């Protein structure tokens, strides 16, 4: 689909089964990052809107929690059908508002579909699995463990994978029997509101699903602080995650946090070079490097380093950067001016710290004038004390570094306050296994791209996460455990 000339965007909150303006009538401007053009003004929510949304979710909870898993699965499958029907529009809005190329935008929509489909299955299975008999060493007592929905869940998401980070929370929350208030990123509300409209169209009872748009300070903070919210599931930066956890402690509500990363791809001396180049490129430049899972530290066996670097530089020079709707474009802009300035600042600081700029670093040729573009960038000789090496850059910037031994490679990868993911490229299966075990990371890909199946797990060690999303873990995040111990009646 091409970028539309004339399209109407959803711009209101969705509260208690209705589209409504914000209590104060204020709005936030939404920008197309490829052109800098103004796209829409969406409702800028406040604590008053949060109050209405939480109240509506709390009112809907008692009936929703009583529905069977099979009933909830029917709604989740209806959402799948609705998202499939809107696939092109959702992908168009994803590219338009986030700037990612159409191919990546379609992948995102397909991920949403796969996630809702998977949690529909888990919801169905809940009917048999909600109550589990536990064997205890007493003939007198019968003990059952029940898994119950935890209550109203606040879902707060970032802008880099709009709809995907939402689906990873929303599908399991609804499957578990929670009612929800979603707060999309103020930077990318357009695809999220279209997803909200898809969800609104399947006829769930009013209040089960609510969406309030606005800033972190005006909507996110009151949502986290609200005593009616039982659980906060947050994806975003580590700094804001810390604030969320502190605020949540006032009302002692549960938190799940998916935060930043500074991950490595490790290329061993026996690696298939074509595969290594492909994986380094994707790990660094997919979504313009705006990925929590970016493998921005490239650790390479010393003997392979000159060849790999030369191959990479050649390959990176061929990446087509530009309008996300243009055919053949592989990398779009960064999401906004602030992000562009932040990444530029890191590049300048890296140079000042003594890192060697190998390629990129500036604005690529031939891109739309006002867009927030930056060329794929590679640094070598990056001091391990520099921010370029230690901090999450969240842009298309790779740091290249040699290692001599497997142990050194593992130590370099683990030398981070984050521990989200890692990629290992080696022909030696035993080494792949050994290194995967030694890494402090929540996901390790061995000779494989960054595939994330909804059936598995998502999240990391250290400052990258609290808890896990996806798989049964994602569902458990929205459940309370209740033990029921009954004294057996004497016959
Ligand atoms: P951010 O932390 O600035 O914002 C995330 C969300 O939190 C937004 O909706 C924002 O409005 C809201 N928010 C801001 N302040 C808040 C507050 N005080 N209380 C409650 N909510 C508040 O992050 P971002 O810039 O939107 O996203 C980029 C970050 O997200 C990166 O650090 C990236 O690594 C991380 N991320 C992590 C994962 C993961 O799965 N680990 C996935 C995607 C993105």
What's a quick, concise take on this entry?
The chain is of the alpha/beta class. It has helices at 47-66, 69-85, 87-98, 102-129, 164-176, 189-200, 216-225, 238-250, 273-285, 305-317, 337-352, 387-390, 406-414, 429-438, 471-476, and strands at 13-15, 18-20, 27-31, 38-43, 131-134, 141-149, 152-156, 179-183, 209-211, 231-235, 254-258, 264-267, 297-301, 356-359, 377-380, 397-403, 418-419, 421-425, 443-446, 461-462, 465-466, 479-487. The strands form six sheets. It has a seven-stranded mixed β-sheet, sandwiched between helices. A six-stranded mixed β-sheet has the order 9-8-7-10-11-21, with helices on both faces. A three-stranded antiparallel β-sheet has the order 5-6-22.
């Amino acid at each position: 689909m091409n970028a539309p000339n004339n399209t109407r965007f959803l711009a209101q909150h969705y509260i208690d089964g209705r589209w409504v303006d914000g209590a104060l009538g204020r709005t936030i401007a939404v920008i197309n990052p490829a052109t800098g053009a103004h796209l829409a003004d969406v409702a800028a929510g406040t604590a008053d809107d949060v109050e209405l949304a939480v109240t509506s979710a709390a009112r809907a909870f008692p009936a929703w929690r009583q529905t069977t898993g099979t009933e909830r699965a029917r709604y989740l499958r209806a959402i799948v059908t609705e998202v499939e029907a809107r696939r092109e529009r959702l992908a168009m809005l994803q590219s338009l508002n986030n700037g990612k190329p159409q191919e990546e935008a379609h992948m995102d929509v397909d991920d949403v579909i796969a996630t809702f489909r998977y949690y529909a299955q888990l919801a169905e299975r809940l009917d048999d699995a909600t109550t589990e008999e536990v064997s205890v060493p007493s003939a007198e007592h019968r003990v059952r463990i029940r898994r119950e929905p935890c209550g109203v869940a606040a879902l707060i998401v970032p802008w880099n994978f709009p709809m995907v980070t939402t689906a990873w929370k929303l599908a399991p929350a609804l499957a578990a029997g929670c009612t929800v208030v979603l707060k999309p990123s103020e930077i990318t509300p357009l695809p999220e509101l279209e997803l909200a409209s898809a969800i609104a169209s399947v006829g769930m009872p009013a209040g089960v699903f609510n969406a309030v748009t606005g800033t972190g300070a005006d909507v996110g903070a009151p949502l986290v602080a609200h005593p009616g919210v039982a659980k906060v599931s947050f994806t975003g930066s580590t700094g804001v995650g810390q604030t969320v956890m502190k605020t949540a402690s006032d009302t002692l509500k549960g938190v799940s946090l998916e935060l930043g990363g500074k991950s490595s791809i490790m290329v061993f001396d026996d690696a298939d070079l074509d595969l290594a180049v492909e994986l380094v490129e994707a790990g660094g430049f997919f979504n313009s490097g705006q990925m929590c899972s970016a493998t921005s530290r490239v650790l390479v066996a010393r003997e392979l380093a000159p060849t790999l670097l030369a191959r990479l530089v050649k390959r990176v020079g061929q990446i087509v950067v530009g309008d996300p709707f243009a055919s053949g474009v592989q990398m779009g802009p960064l999401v906004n001016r602030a992000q562009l300035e932040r990444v530029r600042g890191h590049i300048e600081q890296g140079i000042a710290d003594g890192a060697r700029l190998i390629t990129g670093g500036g604005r690529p040729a031939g891109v739309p004038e006002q867009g927030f573009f930056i060329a794929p960038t590679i640094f070598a000789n990056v001091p391990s004390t520099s921010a370029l090496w230690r901090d999450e850059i969240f842009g298309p910037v790779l740091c290249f570094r040699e290692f001599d031994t497997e142990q050194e490679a593992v130590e370099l990868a683990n030398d981070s306050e984050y521990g989200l993911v890692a990629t290992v490229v080696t022909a030696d299966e035993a080494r792949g296994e050994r290194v995967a075990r030694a890494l402090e990371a929540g996901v390790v890909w061995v000779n494989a791209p960054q595939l994330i199946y909804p059936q598995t797990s998502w999240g990391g060690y250290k400052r990258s996460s609290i808890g896990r999303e996806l798989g049964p873990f994602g569902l458990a995040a929205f459940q309370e455990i209740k033990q029921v111990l009954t004294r057996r009646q004497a016959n």
